[in-house]
Amino acid sequence: VKQLIVGVNKMDSDTAGYKQERYNEIASEMKHMLVRVGWKPDFVEKSVPVLPISGWMGDNLIKKSEKMTWWTGADVIATDGQKIHIDTLLEGLNNFVQVPERKTDAALRLPISGIYKIKGVGDVL
């Protein structure tokens, strides 16, 4: 894993109330937790956008929320070194996340979680 986007969800809840203070508290704790589990502090600070969102109400998912006027977006550095501004989760997925290069001529390998023998059909993986 070389790319991360953190979403602070439920900004519409009574506890959060779309407030910047609550977002800052959670964003700070999430960044601290990422560093504690092994991510480099410089990477977390410069390359991990932390977005305030509400999945239920659709805030900052596809278009910028009018309920969080304090949110000015996040400036992050992508894996290719390009500086990108992100306001919404959609912008993050479209503009920030980059598909890793893969060998298209290599063998396709898939994990199998179970094999089922169905009479008259055969083995189903």
From TrEMBL:
Transmembrane portions of the chain: none
GO terms, molecular function: GTP binding; translation elongation factor activity
InterPro entries documented for this protein: P-loop_NTPase, TRAFAC_GTPase_members
Superkingdom of this protein's organism: Eukaryota
UniProt-recorded name of the protein: Elongation factor 1-alpha
Record-linked PANTHER family: TRANSLATION FACTOR (PTHR23115)
Keywords per UniProt: Elongation factor, GTP-binding, Nucleotide-binding, Protein biosynthesis
SUPFAM superfamilies: P-loop containing nucleoside triphosphate hydrolases
